[in-house]
Amino acid sequence: MSLIPNPFRALVIGSSGTIGSAFVELLEQHPACMEVIGIHRNSANPIDYQDLSTIEAAAKAFSDKPPFQLIINTIGILHCADWMPEKKLDDLNAEQLQMLMQINAIGPGLTIKYFSKLLDSNNSVMATLSAKVGSIEDNRLGGWYSYRASKAALNMLIKTASIECSRTKPNNALVALHPGTVNSRLSKPFKGEQIGRPPLEAAQDMLNVLFTLGKEDSGSFITYSGERLPW
Ligand SMILES: NC(=O)c1ccc[n+]([C@@H]2O[C@H](COP(=O)([O-])OP(=O)(O)OC[C@H]3O[C@@H](n4cnc5c(N)ncnc54)[C@H](OP(=O)(O)O)[C@@H]3O)[C@@H](O)[C@H]2O)c1
Residues lining ligand 1, judged by CB closer than 6 Å? Predict the structure, then answer.
């Protein structure tokens, strides 16, 4: 049975991003969604993973509001102005690894810590966007050291939190969600425009999956098509 009730309130974290803004657009049109709030590093109640104290402050701003039945965190980076994903071991460097760990694992991990307190304890889902390349078992091509490692660390944080949550909040599900290759800022340098799917299509597929989740799905690594990925 779906954990997300009708009606529901939703929060999209990273709503300035390609996939984040697509989620907001779809949720604004969803008949059962009575309110959707989007936050990002330049919004009201900003959340900036380069200043980790903003996570608790942003969550606190919602603590006296009604709970959310759906929270989706889409924040993540693959490349920046200074570097691209590593092609070989010689490219591995501390600065890039630390940055990706902070934005893709530490930030989202602390977001689960503070924002899971805003979930409706009766029925709710919190999804964090991960990536299939973060699967250790599925790693066949190598490369992309920092991104892979940071998403693998994120996956462990989600899984571990889901185990604790299943004891304290048994009607909440925490999941890692793989969006597939989506045409976005993040995928642009990697032929994202040619091989990526339109963000609204990807976000719609992911919402469809989120609406099917039951509490037994907590702690899963799921794709946009509902397939379970190995950790
Ligand atoms: N696109 C794909 O093919 C693909 C595939 C697998 C997984 N994913 C995952 O999907 C998620 C969304 O990606 P996307 O394709 O929508 O990328 P995107 O368009 O680049 O959006 C990334 C989002 O992350 C935010 N962000 C980046 N650094 C931040 C920081 N220091 N603090 C706070 N927010 C920060 C961006 O905020 P600003 O707008 O302020 O920069 C933006 O909201 C990511 O977690 C990514 O790893 C994407």
Answer: 14, 16-20, 40-41, 47-50, 74-77, 103, 129, 131, 179, 181-182, 184-187, 192, 196
